[in-house]
């Protein structure tokens, strides 16, 4: 274990000195497991090593490593309005007999698909992380799932390009997302309504019919310019839409209670896993080089 930790510490120092952007606990733990496998190869009775969060905390105490958090935003919430809406939502569900399978929540979120994370591991002397940069290549995702937790819609992705050069020759209809675009990669009313009528409704209907349940849907959304209350009220005869009060999404929105966070964590883990493989294969490549040249097909 000590040999592995010394090698890991040297690797972090090298990445930091050369400004290669070692980022987030995920990539450090993946690298630790990789090194442990190398140093114990051929040995007998090797103890399993999972690179747990507890081990990482102890490792950071043993070596002069600091976890630097980049600045982020905070948002206000309205606890009272959130509690009132929860009561109202429960009354609607009980009065109209919606099952957990029939209650859906959709939410938009930004995805910086080349971002190396909010925390960058650097040595104490380099705690300001000079020369490091956060990649701003972004897309908008719309995720949707039901309260039962056994169904999730195919994600909608809004990119800034209709046909990115890196995806030439790729059938975008076969991507694991519904691909849409505009120049700012933002959600827009026409994109939302296209998703609502041509993606969400057919997918929800197929799912409910497969469960032998009536095609009745309660869709919960936050308040946003693209979610027009008047249009949503009569959007579909089998559809009821509720809009949450302003500034309450972080408290009561289903997808904000860890689902989106878990999605991004899994995405980041996969990104780091591929990056770790590439860095090991080419010693002259840095994390920055990798992300600057990464392909959309690998990101998505």
From TrEMBL:
It comes from the Eukaryota. PROSITE patterns: HTH_CENPB. Residues 1-69 form the HTH CENPB-type domain. InterPro entries: CenT-Element_Derived (IPR050863), DDE_SF_endonuclease_dom (IPR004875), Homeodomain-like_sf (IPR009057), HTH_CenpB_DNA-bd_dom (IPR006600). Pfam families: DDE_1, HTH_Tnp_Tc5. GO terms for molecular function: DNA binding. GO terms for cellular component: nucleus. This is Tigger transposable element-derived protein 1-like. The gene is LOC116668625.
